[in-house]
Amino acid sequence: MQRGILYVRLIEIHTPDRGVFHHMFARFAAVAAALMTLTIAAPKADAKFWQCAPYARLISGIDIRGNALTWWNQAAGKYDRGAAPKKGAVMSFAATGKMRYGHVAMVSKVVSDREVLLTHANWSRRGGIETDVRAVDVSDKGDWSRVKVWFASNGGLGTSSYPVNGFIYSNGAPAVDETPLPKVTIAAATPVPVAPTARAAAFTLNLE
After folding, report:
1. Which residues of 112-151 are buried (b: 16+ CB within 10 A; e: fewer)?
2. Are the C-beta atoms of 127 and 109 separated by less than 8 Å?
3. Percent of the chain at pLDDT exceeding 70
4. Mean of pLDDT over the chain
5. Which of 15, 60, 145, 191 is the most buried (most CB within 10 A)?
6. CA distance 198 to 178
7. Phi, psi (degrees; rounded to nearest 5) at 73
8. CATH number of the domain at 45-178, please?
9. What ranges do the domains of the chain cover?
């Protein structure tokens, strides 16, 4: 949120009828009214701080709420689950000591039986969105129970591997580039009282 402050002090001009003062005050009051209608340009939607679960829900169409670590169990009986990656499915990461709330990411492309591309949020960039990044199955049995995922600071696969519960499948998942992101408009519309005195008039505009 941005805050701007405009402070104006009007010194009374001593005239018998004080008409000049009233004329000046009317002009400044009009300027103040115009400023209060100011709309601050909305930040880009992709500037929002995204958690992984709300973003995965938005782009996959899988309507599960709560922390990522709860998604696998919540999906039981509501969505099909399995060990094979499919486009539009959500990869469910198990919780670990370093990742206490788990993680969820949508499969945007299946590259091979041991590699996929993921689109997800809040992974290697806090609150950021990463699109079509590599994830590789490094499990001993080739069952996608453990993966390595692209990490920004490495510019490639991270050094750590992560346990995976499996994949939650969704029918008719929207394409990532077709998902509308929310738009935000911040407007300053709160009226500010103006209280003139016999000698001077002062007012402060708070634009939020």
Report:
1. eeeebbbbbbbbeeeebbbeebbbbbeeeeeebbbbbbbb
2. no
3. 60
4. 76
5. 60
6. 61
7. -70, -35
8. 3.90.1720.10
9. 4-42+185-207, 45-178
